[in-house]
Amino acid sequence: MREVVKRLMDSGKLTKETLHIASAINEDEIAVYLSSEEYNLGGDDGTYLYELTTMLDMGIDLVSSDERVSAIIDVLKMYYKLSYKNMALLLNVSEEAIENIHVAPEKVEYKMRYDMVVKIMIIYYVLKYPNYVKIEMQREIHSILQQQTR
Predict the structure, then answer these.
(1) Closest to 98 (Cα-Cα) out of 112, 111, 81
(2) Which residue, 62, 86, 111, sits at the end of a domain?
(3) 37 to each of 31, 32, 70, 105, how far by Cα in Å?
(4) Per the structure, how many domains does the chain have?
(5) Is residue 111, in this structure, part of any structural domain at all?
(6) Which listed residue, of 10, 14, 63, 102, carries a Cα 20 to 30 Å from 73's Cα?
(7) CA-based max dimension of the chain
(8) Percentage of the chain lying above the pLDDT 90 cut
(9) Taking the model in full, what pTM does it have?
(10) Are 65 and 73 in contact (CB under 8 A)?
(11) Phi-psi region for residue 41, left (φ > 0), alpha (ψ -120 to 50) or beta?
(12) Rounded CA separation 16/25 (Å)
């Protein structure tokens, strides 16, 4: 994992500051981690760093954009319990257009597909955002507790 983080930083795809903001891992701790083979990030920090860097390093190109949008629609349907009708009303399009972009995106005209994808991503972000806030608060509490035990 250390090599993946270094590769992302060396290629200019990621900075320590971005990694710190995304993970809430202290920039100094990131620097120590990168410079010492002996130092490892444990617990949630290590897991999060692994998942984040794996996705940024190779996960983006593993699936097509159409497959990614289809997967996000699956999440909206299964996790958030939105139906095609709910999504169609939110996007101001037909249910058929939602179903097509989900299972047969080639049937949707490119401009409409683009507009729908942007709106689908916004819906996903808005629904997921409260979890980001909750996770950030948990990380801050974890960081404070770690500092107190040192």
Answers:
(1) 112
(2) 62
(3) 12, 9, 40, 46
(4) 2
(5) yes
(6) 14
(7) 59
(8) 39
(9) 0.67
(10) no
(11) beta
(12) 10
